[in-house]
Amino acid sequence: MRITNKDNFPEIRSEPDWLRTWLIRLVFVGLFGLLIGLFYVTPLLFYVDGTFTSDEITRFAVIYYPILIWISFLILQYFKRIRRNAVRHITVNREGIFYEKLNGEVESLRYSQL
Question: How far is CA 15 from CA 1, 21, 63, 87, in A?
Fold first, then answer.
């Protein structure tokens, strides 16, 4: 049995599992797209159902859809901003833990800081 100490600590580096990553992305993008689609289609269903007249649905749509488009834009901007800050690789070695981000920045938590 090998005893690991600070002098012979092996470096461990994370590697992504691309198949599972893309499967999860496809599922969540599909669900998120379905949810957004429902937000856009639901008011039209009230018109088809006959609950509201065309004048009422038009007045509602003039207010509802610009607000919905603006909120969708803000959500997409937020996802773009946090995407750049995602961690690509995590490396653990005898000096500490290092997080390599997609934007090229490296954050570290060194054992000497603890």
Answer: 27, 11, 47, 11
